[in-house]
Structures are given as structure tokens and as C-alpha cells.
Amino acid sequence: MHKEILCMRHRDLPPLATIRVFEAAARHLSFTRAADELGMTQAAVSYQIKLLEERLGAPLFLRRTRAVELTATGRLLAPATSEALDQLAAAFSAAKADAGGVLSVSVLPTFAAHWLAPRIGRFQMKHPDIAVRTRATRDVANFSRDDVDVAIRSGLGDWPGLEANPLFPVDFTPMYSPKLVERYGSIERPCDLLRLLLIDPGDRWWKLWFDAMGVPGFEPGGHPDARMGDQHLEARAAIGGYGVAILTPAFYREEIAAGLLVQPFPTASEAGQFYFLAYPTTRRNVPKIRAFRDWFLDELRSGEETCLAPAS
């Protein structure tokens, strides 16, 4: 019996370094890109793959002139290897008492400025052992490459390998300063906006909104190409009386309540588009990520935003 237990516990595995080389090469389908990711030479990657193939007694890649392809054996091993390395990385992360330390958050600039920044202090007070490092960027986070724990992004949430918790819908509507009414007169119908300066008329939200309101004839090219680059900058321009911006109301409740912005018409939205809190599925139980997710969803429930149930 004792001998059988020993046999079950024995794992005839290649060195971890060799497994990492194979996983990177299989993911990229390139020895060169695998070498760049791992900080090795292409020759070293090729040598490690050769050692692994000799150990298995079967080829893992078909070498073409300018590319490599996985063999049937390689296709069998590749997904299992990636999953195993992800689980191993998550286990080591949790073992280092990952509830403490630094939580790195990648977030869209407007979301960071108008939703997260006014509230993040409450998270810090609740979890003083977790330091939050926020990176406001439009770049999509690559969890396998970037130093990012969680990301806040908009879209459909259909991102392979990621847990995506829906926050609130991506809706939008025109807003402007009361100064604009003083200057140009009352704005009573959606079509009245066509005679005003629209900030970034090329934004697809404008056409979607006019279509939803039943206003025909909107052509972005018929309006001055006034762009600001980000929603929060467009909001500042609208507050200054520069023109009409199309904005997400959830970010500007304080400005509306203070009379800095006017929201005269209903919102529109793209089907299925939400803001999501996303992180790798393999890291969903890391304590600092769970703490941030739970706090975030509690904040939404206690506020006015429409919040969906967290993903399981």
C-alpha cells in the first residue's frame, strides 16, 4: 500500500523552465516571440523544445520556413500547460498573503476621474493593508504581460479567460451648460441640437442617439470636427459653454445636481454594452481582488447606478 501511494505521488515531469518555454512558443506559434517574452535567445528556445521532444519521443512543432505549427501532440499539451501555469501562478500569489501589498487597477480615464477617484478613499479606509495603484488609460490591459490585478473596461464582457462583473450600462445622452441656452435660446426637441456645436460629432454615440430619438439626417461631416479625446475633457468643455457633449449620466450626477450641466433628453445605449470589472478567472479568489470586487459592487448597490448581480 505504501509503495502504491509513493507511485501516485511521483510526477514524471520535465523541468519547469522547459515547460514555460513550450507554453510560450505554443501560445505565440513563434520561437522568436517566445524568446522575446522569456528574455532568451531563439537558439535557446529551440534547444529547450528539442529536449522536450526527445523526452516525449514525439515532435511538438512542425518547422516551416517562416513559421511553426503545433503537431497533434503539441495541440494536446498546449492548453493543459497554459492552464497549469496559470493555476500555479495564482497559487503562489495567494501563498504570499496577497491580501496585503499593492492592488494595481487599470481603468478608463473618465471612469477614474468621475466615479472611482471620489470613492476610492472608502476602500482604503476599509482595507488599510491594501495600497491601490490606479492607472488611468485607454489601453486594454494584458494580464499576462502587464502589472495589473483588475481592469475596468466597457464592452460585451466576452473576454476569454477573464471573470467580468457587470457594473452598469454604457448609456449616453447630450448635455450642455445653461450658458448655451442663454446664448442660443431654448432647446426643446432633440432636433434642436443640430443647430448647435456638437463636441466630437464623429463619435458613434451621436448617430446612435439621434437614431434612437427618431431624428433623421444627422451627418457627422456636416458639423465642425471638434474633438477633445476623452469624455471627461468633453464634459469640461460643455460646462464651459463651448458646445454640446454626449456623455454617460452616471459620471456627471454631481454636475447635473449643481446646475453645471443640463440633461434635457432620455439616454440611449448599445445593446449588451456595460462597464465591467474584469480580472483573470484563475485569480478570482486572490484575497485583495475579492476585497476590491466586493467593495466595488457594494458601492454600486448603495448608489443610484443600476447594478447587476456579480458573476459567479
TrEMBL record:
Single GO BP term: DNA-templated transcription
GO terms for MF: DNA-binding transcription factor activity; sequence-specific DNA binding
UniProt key word Transcription: yes
Domain HTH lysR-type, residue spans: 14-71
Keyword annotations from UniProtKB, A to Z: DNA-binding, Transcription, Transcription regulation
Keyword DNA-binding on entry: yes
Cited PANTHER family: GLYCINE CLEAVAGE SYSTEM TRANSCRIPTIONAL ACTIVATOR, HTH-TYPE TRANSCRIPTIONAL REGULATOR
Similarity comment: Belongs to the LysR transcriptional regulatory family.
Protein name, per record: Transcriptional regulator GcvA
